[in-house]
Amino acid sequence: MKETLYQDFTHKKKNGKKSFAVLIDPDKVDAAQISELTSLAQDAAVDYFFLGGSLVISNHLDECIQQIKSLCNIPVILFPGSPSQVSKHADALLYLSLISGRNPELLIGQHVISAPLVRKSGLEIMPTGYMVIDGGAPTTVSYISNATPIPADKNEIAMCTAMAGEMLGMKLIYMDAGSGAKRPITESMISCVSKHIEVPLIIGGGITDPEKAYLNCKAGADVIVVGNAIEKNSALIREISSAVHSVPVSVG
């Protein structure tokens, strides 16, 4: 029986192995850029592609995924900002519930609208507790969600929010400082959250160099996601992937 991507996530976590995901916004890439990113990611042993954005306005999501799939075997996981960002051509979908906010539309409302389409897609669905952390600058996700981010220095709020998400049945916790964040999530917050949940922890937003990615993994992140920095400098793919995969394995 084929292992699901979620089993891959949990297996790696159980064995202390860290993963690196490259985030691609379909609005910001053309065919040539996708080809370059795919080649670099393959050479760098990137674990996953996350595909999506807070505000996808182009209509080539399907084409983008199909091109990636034709060029490499790296799994493509949808990171949707709205119900329209669903494609049967991907491998899995992060079914995001914004548990850090109090906007009912992003807690359950949009899910009710998208449920028939998502079920029909045949995608592997991964319920994900999505937490927006203050990154020191207004981000698209905070604007679109109309939700106040968790303050960067309130580790206990992040911890309790993640615990609640896990106990509500979320299979992943994704903490995000947002695209273009001036400051990434602190190691102390990552460590605090990681110690109090058992599900895989994904960290993204404001990670611009290999050292930060490495330190985040050491603090307890299971998956590092980088998008904005790679858009500016695609060579970072190799450096950050190497840093993430060089973290010493520590089980339990």
Task: Supply the key terms.
252 residues; alpha/beta; TIM Barrel; globular
Characterization of this structure:
It is a single chain. The chain is α/β, with parallel strands linked by helices. The chain has one domain: FMN-linked oxidoreductases (TIM Barrel, Alpha-Beta Barrel). It is 41% helix and 17% strand. The chain has ten helices and eight strands. It has helices spanning 5-14, 31-43, 61-71, 104-121, 140-145, 155-167, 187-194, 210-219, 228-232, 236-245, and strands at residues 19-24, 48-51, 76-78, 92-98, 124-132, 172-176, 201-204, 223-226. It has an eight-stranded parallel beta barrel with strand order 1-2-3-4-5-6-7-8, surrounded by seven helices. Helix 8 (210-219) links the parallel strand 7 (201-204) and strand 8. The longest helix has 18 residues, at 104-121.
